[in-house]
Amino acid sequence: MASPVTSHHGRTIHEVWTALESQLDSQWGVVSDVAFAFDADNEFCPDLAVIPASEAARNRIAYAPDLIELVVEVVSGGTVRRDYEIKPRWYASRAIADFVILDPLRGHAVTMWNAGPEGYGSRDTIPYGPDLTLDSPLGKLTIPTAGLPVDPKARTRP
Questions:
Q1: Are 99 and 88 in contact (CB under 8 A)?
Q2: Which helix H or strand E contains 22, and what residues bound it?
Q3: What is the pLDDT of residues 40-85, one digit of tens each?
Q4: Consecutive H or E run containing 72
Q5: Other CB atoms closer than 10 Å to residue 4's CB: what's the count?
Q6: Residue 129, exposed/middle/buried by CB under 10 A (0-12, 13-18, 19+)?
Q7: 12, 49, 94, 122: which could form a disulfide with 114 (CB 3.0–4.6 Å)?
């Protein structure tokens, strides 16, 4: 059974998927909500993951995490700790080059890079508004943030 998400969550995924897909070389594909088993006890289903297009075309429900080059998570009320604390350690431990958190609850994006066994060595927080540019192994990727939704009840959160 799927966990329900807000319309802001879904819209954010749609906007970012569209932006990324239009910029990626044809050898890369975007998948959403498929499983990546990091070990026997830790399986994550990222909101968006960029993997080789040949693998995405296989249309599977699960993939190896080593295929991921870029991962994007959209924060919802029940995933704050998991998105900000747990997933970065696991994603970095598998050398996923770039991790982006989009947070409609706070109206900002967090980018992480320089993956290592203890987590990401570099991190920036950018308020929604200007374009977010990633200098990634996939090339320079731009995610427009000005139109991303922000939860009206949460605009005053720090």
A1: yes
A2: helix 7-23
A3: 898 999 999 999 999 999 999 999 999 999 999 999 988 999 999 9
A4: strand 70-74
A5: 8
A6: middle
A7: 122
